[in-house]
């Protein structure tokens, strides 16, 4: 079976998939689920490559039996079965099975995949010997081959669709997650239908002697290509996140940079807010958290230079980032000018104003807005640490 | 095991006890620590200005008041929720790490009466606060708070899901 997709389209995808795999092997291959995802994509990549016409032409130049193109074509069925076995292991993890248990059992899942691949190769032997594709040769060997091939696909597709439908129904699923889960459910549904229908249609074709409706197996090839490309897109999502984080382009890293100058101004005035026992080296999330807390602590201290001017002023009026930064700058100027702390002061609104953002990124998003305004209001003669 | 490793282990132990099928919540966290210590914990919100008046430096923003049979955590209720959670996490750090109160810590018993008029001074066994990070106990409690907050606010703020963490990760 040769890919009917033009090399102009398939080759960039093969290269992109190789890059995705390289990044996964380098940065995203420590947990059981990550390793299984990488393995599934690697099997898919090998299958895609073996189905390329140019690759098959190259194989054809090697003397047989190594240069038996039909053998490699049928080996790609084994690649698909192994993808499915890897995804089955992933589905066990998604269903809450302990990773250690899955890691041990995965060898069994792969052994089953190899056994099914052996059945496929044995059942495909008559068609290879006849120099035909399995759907051209047809007969009961084709029924055996497609049953061995599609049974795991059907089972795993149904399991994956069930898990992702369950996840899609959770109330806290984000639009981005819904899009990814929807794509996964679509691919699983198509494969489940294909897995249920193909063996039955093959039986019908054999019993009635009608012959295959698609002897060149273009539909099966396209289905495989689409499923592997879809899986690559799904598997590339965490790769993109890892690359963004590595390049400092993720939200946490960007927010960390944005609040840096405001944090520095504040801790220069209030160095006691810093944890001095050690440098925070636990990654950007810890660093961002620590900077948020140190800004908050410094704002509490700076509030003593924010005298009560109008006790009757409505305290619950929401102030925008410019207003918050201007109030901070006023207190800051008083502090660096050596003005004594006020007897009666009120908390700066940057620390006291009701905030919707309670998680790390949301809380830092709000501080980023203040930090951007702070650059406008920051006293020019602020001390430099 | 190093000092930092033991703090991380305490954070892991508490975090692992938190349910994973629901988002992290302050009260659920406190209830869990209370159940683990087999002592009730009361959260007592006050105005930050009143709280800072209790400490020696004017910077006090949280207190753990340990009594014979229960614990009280006093925190500023007029600051950002994120900040309040860190202060509460710091006081829980003192509890979980079995810190001892310092007699020279400067927390005025008289001022405590103003903050907590409903409790008898005689029932107080020890008081620890969050003010600065000069001594070892304060550093350790703050480190505990940092780790538990990142776990809560970055990793556990939403329902945990193995499907989600396969594709979308926060770190």
Give a verbal description of the structure:
The complex is a heterodimer of chains A (385) and B (171). Chain A has 14 helices and no strands. Chain A is mostly helical and 385 residues long. In chain A, α2 (32-51) packs across α9 (218-246), α4 packs antiparallel against α5 (99-129) and α7 runs antiparallel to α8 (175-208). The radius of gyration of chain A is 31 Å and the shape is elongated. Chain A starts with 6 loop residues before the first helix and ends in an 8-residue tail after the last helix. The mean pLDDT of chain A is 90. Chain B is α+β, with helices and mostly antiparallel strands. Chain B is built from seven helices and four strands. A four-stranded mixed sheet of chain B has the order 1-3-2-4. The longest helix of chain B is centred in the last third of the chain and has 20 residues, at 136-155. The radius of gyration of chain B is 16 Å and the shape is globular. The two termini of chain B are 26 Å apart. The model of chain B has no long low-confidence stretch (mean pLDDT 85). Chains A and B meet through α2, α4, α7, α8 and α9 of A and α3, α4, α6 and α7 of B.
Give a brief rundown of this model.
The complex is a heterodimer of chains A (385) and B (171). Chain A has 385 residues and is mostly helical. Chain A has 14 helices and no strands.
What is the end-to-end distance of chain B?
Answer: 26 Å
- Helix coverage percent of chain A: over 70%
Q: What is the ordering of alpha helices and beta strands of chain A? A: HHHHHHHHHHHHHH
Structural class of chain B: alpha+beta
Strand-residue fraction of chain A? under 5%
Number of strands of chain A: 0
Q: State the total count of DSSP E strands of chain B.
A: 4
Largest beta-sheet characterization of chain B? 4 strands, mixed
- Number of helical regions of chain A: 14
Helix content of chain B: 40-55%
How would you name the oligomeric state of the polypeptide chains in this document?
heterodimer
Distance between the termini of chain A: 68 Å
Radius of gyration of chain A: 31 Å
Q: Which overall shape of chain B is indicated by the principal axes computed on the Cα atoms?
A: globular
Number of helices of chain B: 7
Major beta-sheet overview of chain A: none
Shape label of chain A: elongated
Structural class of chain A: mainly alpha
The gyration radius over C-alpha positions of chain B equals 16 Å
Mean pLDDT of chain A: 90
